[in-house]
Write a structure and sequence with these properties.
alpha/beta; 2-enoyl-CoA Hydratase, Chain A, domain 1; 2 domains; eight-stranded mixed beta sheet; six-stranded mixed beta sheet; 37% helix; 18% strand; elongated; COA_CT_C; methylcrotonoyl-CoA carboxylase activity; AcCoA_carboxyl_beta
Length: 500
């Protein structure tokens, strides 16, 4: 017995650690390869994409100017800040502003230019709180609402509602564009919906703040009236359902705009306004004070790790993702240039290989990535549905890198039930209750154009056909901002498509 015990207590021969733990460790394998920058294809892609990006920046810079030079000069002469100056003065110094739908209205109304749809919308940090900012640009047709203006504001409100972002409205508008009012008021998702959204968000505790910095006429008067708190600028802001000309026509009474709906009237008599501002800068200071007093605390239930730069420079994407839709590229090379440390844990790497799925981090935040690498087969669709469900279980946001012509067609594939398998993926994505971000990195056709039902950046300049080609690096920059700054603890049950 004692001999057996002694044998049992004898030290075992140790196996070298390198043998036992050949794959042990917390590190994740890096992805990507160094492209041959001297190849003809790479150089052709780089040249074409760089030209498109330069053109895009040039157009964006023109849009940022707003109205024509005469309108801007007249606006400034009245002692007002320009719309973009107001936004810049409102957000925290040095913090980014994620502008939405910057190309809304671009060449939409022929010779009648409406830069940015006549309204600036985007997400910015105010007193440390991410807010949705909606600012009318009075240098563009007096800040009047075109159909595309309404659509853009509704989109911003929906994003704010889903992410529970406080809304700040910088109001300076003459109301609806009357020649187009039949297109503005006629439908469920037209102008009246903006007030409905405002009421619903306020009832759900999503703060609504309005700053009247110019005209606020007719139905637009409901914006400050329905806000939780509002500010009006002295000798500049006016709120009334009917302006002086209408009052005179209806009642014969002659009254100035200031006496009818100015700051003194609404702060001292009617009580419609809560704060009296001396000028634009004072009004924006009051907004920051209001936001500071919201007692808002951002809660995150995701693990955040230190951020790392990708191992490969972003401008290599110019040479990898070309303007030629018939030329394939490996989406893994795109992933390697946007995720932290180019680290990617691929899921089901050997199954359904025309769809790449896996986990990574962007700015330290976890992200589930789904990237197209060819047409979708049944295996790809089932793999995608499985991965989406995993991300939902773990509360991990989804990033779609889309470049696809659709599902595979043919007798063999129909017999295998591709319609049912495709439906499984569509259902999984539609029901996903995590943030969804889409980068359209090349071509998108068929059902897949709307499949992700999520945030969308078109990454290359749109051509006359369904071809869409714009630089991938622009899209990755916007995506990174969203991942870094949006309240990812929020579950999203619906989705919004964002386009230029």
């Amino acid at each position: 017995m004692w001999a057996a015990l002694r044998l049992a207590l004898r030290p075992c021969a140790r196996v070298p650690v390198s043998t036992l733990r050949a794959y042990h460790g917390a590190s994740v394998a890096a992805l990507g390869t160094q492209p041959d920058s001297s190849s003809a294809i790479y150089q052709e892609n780089y040249k074409q994409m760089k030209a498109l990006v330069d053109q895009l920046y040039e157009r964006a810079q023109k849009i940022r100017l707003g109205g024509d030079e005469k309108a801007r000069a007249r606006h400034v002469a009245r002692g007002k800040l320009l719309a973009r100056e107001r936004v810049d003065s409102l957000i925290d110094p040095g913090s980014p502003f994620l502008e939405l739908s910057q190309f809304a209205g671009y060449q939409l109304y022929g010779d009648e230019e409406v830069p940015a749809g006549g309204i600036i919308t985007g997400i910015g940090r105010v007193s440390g709180v991410e807010c949705m900012i909606v600012a009318n640009d009075a240098t563009i047709k007096g800040g009047s609402y075109y159909p595309v203006t309404v659509k853009k504001q509704l989109r911003a409100q929906e994003i704010a509602m889903q992410n529970r972002l406080p809304c700040i409205y910088l109001v300076d508008s003459g109301g609806a564009n009357l020649p187009r009012q039949a297109e503005i008021f006629a439908d469920r998702d037209h102008f009246g919906r903006t007030f409905y959204n405002q009421a619903i968000m306020s009832s759900e505790g999503i703060v609504q703040i309005a700053v009247v910095m110019g005209f606020c006429t007719a139905g637009g008067a409901y914006v400050p009236a329905m806000a939780d708190e509002n500010i009006i600028v002295r000798k500049q802001g006016t709120i009334f359902l009917g302006g002086p000309p209408l009052v005179k026509a209806a009642t014969g009474e002659e009254v100035s705009a200031e006496d009818l709906g100015g700051a003194d009237l609404h702060c001292r008599k009617s009580g419609v306004s809560d704060y009296y501002a001396l000028d634009d800068n004072h009004a924006l200071h009051l907004v920051r004070t209001i936001v500071r007093n919201l007692n808002y605390q951002k809660k995150l239930d995701v693990t955040i790790e230190p951020s790392e730069d990708p191992l490969f420079p972003a401008d290599e994407l110019y040479g990898i993702v070309g303007a030629n839709l018939k030329r394939n590229f490996d989406v893994r090379e795109v992933i390697a240039r946007i995720v932290d440390g180019s680290k990617f844990s691929e899921f089901k790497a050997l199954y359904g290989d025309t769809l790449v799925t896996g986990f990574a981090r962007i700015y330290g935040y976890p992200i589930g990535i789904i990237g197209n690498n060819g047409v979708l087969f049944s295996e790809s669709a089932k793999k995608g549905a499985h991965f989406v469900q995993l991300c939902c279980q773990r509360n991990i946001p989804l990033l779609f890198l889309q470049n696809i012509t659709g599902f595979m067609v043919g007798r063999e594939y129909e017999a295998e039930g591709i319609a049912k398998d495709g439906a499984k993926m569509v259902t999984a994505v539609a029901c996903a209750n995590v943030p969804k971000i889409t980068v359209i990195s090349c071509g998108m056709m068929g059902l897949l154009i709307q499949q992700t039902l999520g945030w969308s950046w078109v990454s290359v300049l749109a051509q006359p056909s369904t071809h869409q080609s714009r630089s991938r690096t622009l899209a990755s920059g916007g995506c990174n901002w969203v991942i870094k700054h949006l309240p990812l603890d929020t579950k999203i049950n619906k989705s919004v498509a964002l386009k230029f």
